[in-house]
Every structure is written in structure tokens, then in C-alpha cells.
Design the sequence.
């Protein structure tokens, strides 16, 4: 499973990129706003790190405007995937953009039928938001299971990108059900590598090493 960072912080992306575990980045207007910088400036800096997949979201609400904005974003860098919201206008825009070769990440997906439609219009990624479903007393991971099964049944090439990931268990469960990608905040990705027994074991090894005769 690929691991994406959900952020617009170049510092966070650089840190994870240097570890070798990062496969891509997802951004959205809210994340970019936190950085207090120009949108396109941030995107170019992220892409220049060498990240092969960077999702940038349109803010238009009509199909024609989404297509125009998507074409512009696509032209900024070859690594950019255009995020389009799951709306009737978004479906129309995705059909046009995908036919032109633009890789679309259809976002704000909350049902399996929405995911089915995203695949039918040619989205490269579909982004179901599991944490937000959990917040509404629904089991977000059940949605991932349904989408994975549907895509396998019909051999859709659309990849399942699990979004709104809140903790490492979300990542683990997504991997177990066969999701293609999980995108997460920096803090969650950090926790994937952490375990208290690892820290205790390392401390013990180093303490014992101090007892080994030197020289």
C-alpha cells in the first residue's frame, strides 16, 4: 500500500520524503490556507522535491470552471493530480479531464455508489473520507471494504485512496482490506514507526553496550 502525507507543509513533506517511505501528497484549500503562502508556489515547491503524486484541489463549483482550473493545475507540473469534488458538476468535469489525460482524484466521497460513479467517469483515485463517517456513528472502514470489492468485481483501474485517516489503526485496517493508498497527517505517519517496546529495547541495548570493554 502506498502512503501519502495529507499536508501543505513543505517541511513536513521533506522530512518524510527523506525517510524513503513517502509515495505522494494530498493537499486541499484548508491545508494550503494554514501555510499562509501562495497556492501555486507551495505546489511547485512540493513537486520539486521529487514527490511523484501531488493532489491539488479545484475550488470552482461549475463543470466548465472545474475543467478550466483542472487544466491549469495539470500544466503546473507532471506530478499533479487534480482533485475534483464528488458532485454532478464534478462528475462531468472528471469525464472531460480524464478523457484529456488528466489524472483526477475524486474527493469528498462518502458512499460506495459515489465511488462507483467516480470510477465510471475515469477518476484515477477515489478518496473516501473514513474519519468523517466515524464521526457520524458510521463505520468508515466498511465503506472501504465495499469500494474495494466493487472495483475488483468490475476491474476498475481507479485506485482507492483512503482519506480522513485519524490514527494508525485506520492505516492498518485499510491495508488489510486491500486499499491502494492511505493519506494521513504528519503525526499519524510518525506513529506508524513508533512502539514503546522498540524504545525500551534500544535503551537496553545501549546501556549494555556501555559495559562492553573498549580499547
Sequence:
Amino acid at each position: 500500500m502506498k502512503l501519502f502525507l495529507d499536508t501543505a507543509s513543505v517541511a513536513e513533506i521533506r522530512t518524510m520524503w527523506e525517510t524513503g517511505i513517502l509515495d505522494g501528497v494530498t493537499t486541499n484549500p484548508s491545508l494550503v490556507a494554514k501555510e499562509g503562502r501562495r497556492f501555486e508556489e507551495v505546489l511547485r515547491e512540493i513537486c520539486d522535491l521529487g514527490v511523484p503524486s501531488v493532489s491539488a484541489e479545484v475550488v470552482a463549483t461549475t463543470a466548465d470552471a472545474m475543467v478550466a482550473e483542472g487544466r491549469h493545475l495539470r500544466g503546473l507540473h507532471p506530478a499533479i493530480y487534480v482533485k475534483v469534488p464528488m458532485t454532478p458538476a464534478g462528475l462531468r468535469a472528471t469525464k472531460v479531464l480524464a478523457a484529456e489525460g488528466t489524472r483526477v482524484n475524486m474527493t469528498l466521497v462518502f458512499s460506495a455508489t459515489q465511488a462507483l460513479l467516480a470510477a465510471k467517469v475515469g477518476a484515477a483515485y477515489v478518496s473516501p473520507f473514513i474519519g468523517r463517517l466515524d464521526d457520524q456513528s458510521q463505520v468508515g472502514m466498511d465503506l472501504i471494504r465495499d469500494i474495494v470489492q466493487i472495483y475488483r468485481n468490475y476491474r476498475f483501474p481507479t485506485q482507492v485512496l483512503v482519506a480522513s485517516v485519524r490514527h494508525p489503526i485506520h492505516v492498518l485496517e485499510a491495508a488489510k482490506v486491500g486499499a491502494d493508498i492511505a493519506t494521513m497527517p504528519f503525526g499519524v505517519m510518525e506513529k506508524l514507526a513508533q512502539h514503546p517496546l522498540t524504545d525500551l529495547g534500544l535503551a537496553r541495548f545501549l546501556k549494555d553496550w556501555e559495559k562492553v570493554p573498549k580499547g
